[in-house]
Amino acid sequence: MTDPRLDGTAIAASVIDLIGNTPLVKLHRLTELEGIPSVLAMKMETTNPGGSSKDRPALEMILAAEREGLLRPGGTIVEPTSGNTGVGLAIVAAQRGYKCVFVMTDKVAPEKISLLKAYGAEVVVCPVAVEPDDPESYYSVAERLTDELGAFRPNQYANPNNPRAHELTTGPELWRQTAGRITHFVAGAGTCGTITGTARYLKAQNPNIRIIAADPEGSVFSGGSGRPYLVEGVGEDFFPAAWDTSLYDEIIPISDQESFLTARRVSEAEGILIGGSGGMAVAAAIQVAKRAGPDDIVVVLNPDSGRGYLSRVFDDEWMANFGFVQECENCVGAVLETRGAMAELLYVNPGQPVREAVALMKANGISQLPVCKNTPPFANAEVSGAIDELDVMEAIAVDPAVMDLPVDKVMGPRLPTIGVGQKIERAMKMLEAAPALLVLSGGRPLAVITRTDILSYFQAAAGSVVLDALTTEAGRG
Question: Which residues are catalytic?
Answer without folding.
Answer: 54
